[in-house]
Amino acid sequence: xxxxxxxxxxxxxxxxxxxxxxxxxxxxxxxxxxxxxxxxxxxxxxxxxxxxxxxxxxxxxxxxxxxxxxxxxxxxxxxxxxxxxxxxxxxxxxxxxxxxxxxxxxxxxxxxxxxxxxxxxxxxxxxxxxxxxxxxxxxxxxxxxxxxxxxxxxxxxxxxxxxxxxxxxxxxxxxxxxxxxxxxxxxxxxxxxxxxxxxxxxxxxxxxxxxxxxxxxxxxxxxxxxxxxxxxxxxxxxxxxx
Length: 242
Ligand code: SF4
Ligand code: F3S
Ligand code: FES
What we know:
The protein is α+β, with helices and mostly antiparallel strands. 37% of the residues lie in helices and 15% in strands.
């Protein structure tokens, strides 16, 4: 049996709250174990070498969306990335586009909340006392599957971090926002009209700001069909704005 691999982790370190802190990369060596994820490597590093290292996780199962980071140039979930899939030298940076808390920890929650409120990304039933029989009516199973597929977004922020448009337009809602509007646009229980959706995403901060760079589609850890949804939403908004 060959000796375990030594991994060199170059980790971004910076605490913006500390005036004495300057952004830099710190290098650590970790011995690779079978089935080791980046999350496990970072946890071991924090436990045995450097308790000051900041990074986020909750579920360790690709569900909570909190462990996104840039791994050798690509946004990924640390808990779903096996070190054996990567070269022995790994550089870890915090996701760009979100406020830095410290080291690899970013405040994606505030960004997601602001975007969700701006897009009113929740089910709207126009009637304040809705007809419950309509809300509870059996949905076509294929349509329910399509909605469920888009609901699998975990708001990890990888699509936002990978998107060039986000770097240029700070009001751009990102693929995560466009996916949400596509999802509610599909839902027959949502009574908003296309014109109302157009008001939310029919501008440059929405679907017409997207330059179809498609990095969002490539990096989404849940493999959501973002390319298809953005194209679909763009056609729908073109009709609504005509
Ligand atoms: Fe993450 Fe994909 Fe949702 Fe973007 S669309 S926030 S990459 S799960
Ligand atoms: Fe950005 Fe995806 Fe559009 S990467 S530019 S949201 S196709
Ligand atoms: Fe929850 Fe990685 S820790 S998605």
